[in-house]
Design brief:
Layout (H helix, E strand, L loop, with lengths): L2 E5 L7 E7 L15 E4 L20 H10 L19 H8 L28 E4 L10 E3 L2 E9 L3 E7 L5 E10 L7 H12 L15 E7 L4 E7 L3 E2 L1 H5 L7 H22 L1 E2 L8 E4 L21 E2 L5 E2 L3 H4 L3 E3 L6 E2 L2 H4 L21 H4 L9 H4 L7 H9 L5 H13 L2 E4 L3 H15 L5 E4 L20 H4 L6 H14 L8 H4 L6 H5 L6
Parallel strand pairs: 4-9, 18-19
Antiparallel strand pairs: 1-2, 2-3, 5-6, 6-7, 7-8, 8-10, 9-10, 11-13, 12-17, 13-16, 14-15
């Protein structure tokens, strides 16, 4: 298929090139990787975006020099850009992908089993309760299920177990409901967003890295007071990361890879933006692993993480299963934007933010992810309006994406720690990625493992230095350094608008992408 290339004037940044078919010639060289739209970055390009610029578009030498200085003393195996695919003819491509996947049908389920394979993520009906009903222990909810003990409570609402008449706890569902006199507005919005995320559901698999949302709980007079959520049998990674003896870089690798993969799917398919993605808003699914990171099958050719194709899609065996090791929760501040699925994130502004406006378009490669066709913005505009307090919070975090938010939050857990000497390369690669995104440099020490270590806490046979009480994680003034780092990252970030697909191309994930290839 030959193409006609039309360019916008060179004064516009970034350049956008639309590829329009003009004939039926099936030339692999003319498909440009199968994408319908190619974004060519201008001289403001960063290493994450289009490293191989086309003729006539050159990288600014001064910016290139600064970009290299950001990652000094860090070994790179390849640039921050996806690998290009090997050309294949149409017949081979069709045989490999089976053609484009059709949208997943969303049944109007009458059941409440959120995790049932035939109904997972698609229960649509409302649960009606009497007027004046509120969540108290013993109150009947549905189908013989009653409110059980509280799993957690806040000032506005709580999460409760569901039990049957014999006192048996429901293993798959919990109830999230507001208190009797609480003025909780965002519950209905969170439920609506959870139902939109349910469009990522695919038969015979679970939601890819997201907590499933079931029915909404409504009183007879129409007041929305709660919802049914998937019960996640696990724990918060923040508790483990907060331990003073923590030094497992592979656990951080698995956490970030699972979360970024889930974000990549949500951004491409829905334009999903969590807006409050801290480590505390991620849950680790319970596993049987004794090594810290979730257990994976030995037959997995990609090793400990899913492989990515050239455009950031998940490939390889058991990819969907791996993505459920960590799950994103709490959609109360989430929203949808047309900029993520369009691929229009660039460094055009002073804060490298996503653009204010941009076209909505999807490439063929993105539709081959065996996921539903992305929802239109018209379908997402029916969400409840944002209240003034949340609007102020969103303004505070404007122009900062979910990847930045995760890295910003990780700084307080990872700075000033002692890591195993054998993991020095991976730690430096992670810190280089965090620096690329947030603009701050974290401190680290390295020491060999020893039988003399207590509770897994590594010790260095030399003094930390004159400022250990500030720089070391256990230093009594380390909290001041963390506050300084977080303020610097907030006011002077480098790339806060980075997308999940771009983040997954960082060298930090290079090892897990290729681990296990020798066994194929």
């Amino acid at each position: 298929m030959s193409t006609t290339v039309t360019e916008t004037p060179t004064s516009v940044s970034p350049l956008k090139v639309k590829i329009q078919p003009t004939s039926t010639d099936e030339s692999p060289q003319s498909t440009l990787g199968g994408h319908g739209v190619v974004h060519i970055t201008s001289q403001n390009a960063t290493p994450f975006q289009n490293a191989d610029l086309p003729p006539g578009v050159a990288m600014d030498p001064e910016l290139a020099r600064k970009s290299e200085e950001k990652f000094d003393n860090v070994p790179f195996s390849r640039p921050f850009s996806p690998k290009q695919p090997i050309a294949e003819d149409a017949a081979e491509s069709s045989a490999r992908t089976g053609g484009l996947h059709t949208p997943t049908q969303l049944p109007e389920s009458a059941t409440s089993a959120v995790l049932e394979p035939s109904e997972a993520g698609h229960a649509r009906r409302w649960i009606k309760v009497p007027k004046g009903w509120y969540a108290k222990k013993g109150a009947e909810v549905m189908d013989g299920l009653r409110v059980g003990d509280a799993l957690g409570k806040g000032c506005q609402g709580g999460v409760y177990k569901l039990v049957d008449k014999d006192g048996n706890v429901d293993p798959t569902r919990v109830l999230k409901a507001k208190h009797r006199y609480a003025l909780l507005v965002k519950v209905k919005r969170e439920w609506e967003i959870g139902r939109c995320i349910a469009n990522l559901y695919e038969p015979d698999s679970s939601l890819p890295g997201y907590m499933a949302t079931g029915e909404g709980v409504v009183t007879e007079n129409g007041n929305f007071i709660g919802m049914i959520l998937e019960k996640i049998d696990g724990k918060q990674p923040s508790k483990r990361l907060n331990e003073s003896s923590f030094n497992d870089i592979h656990y951080v690798e698995e956490l970030l890879f699972c979360v970024f993969n889930a974000l990549d799917i949500g951004q491409k398919s829905l334009g999903f933006h969590h807006a409050d993605l801290r480590v505390s808003n991620v849950m680790e699914v319970k596993t049987t692993s004794t090594q810290g990171a979730p257990q994976l099958e030995e037959t997995d050719v990609a090793g400990r993480a899913a492989a990515l194709s050239f455009n950031g899609e998940n490939v390889g065996k058991n990819a969907a299963k791996r993505l459920n090791q960590f799950k994103i929760i709490d959609y109360g501040l989430a929203d949808f934007t047309e900029h993520y699925p369009s691929g229009n994130v660039h460094v055009g502004g002073p804060t490298h933010a996503v653009p204010k406006t941009g076209p909505l378009h999807f490439s063929i490669g993105q539709l081959q992810m065996s996921l539903p066709v992305p929802l239109s913005l018209e379908q997402l505009k029916g969400l409840p309006k944002i209240n003034p307090l949340e609007r102020m919070y969103r303004h505070f975090w404007r122009n900062k994406g979910d990847i930045y938010h995760v890295c910003w939050d990780l700084t307080r857990y990872l700075d000033g720690r002692v890591w195993p000497k054998e993991d020095e390369k991976q730690v430096k690669l992670l810190f280089a990625f965090i620096h690329h995104c947030t603009g701050v440099r974290l401190k680290a020490w390295f020491a060999p493992k020893s039988t003399a270590d207590k509770d897994g806490k590594l010790k260095i046979p030399r003094r930390y230095g004159n400022f250990a009480f500030v720089q070391h994680y256990d230093g009594f003034l380390h909290v001041l350094r963390i506050r300084s780092i977080r303020l610097q990252a907030w006011f002077r970030p480098h790339n806060p608008g980075i997308t999940a697909a771009e983040a997954l191309c960082a060298p930090f994930f290079e090892a897990c992408l290729h681990k296990g290839e020798d066994a194929v």
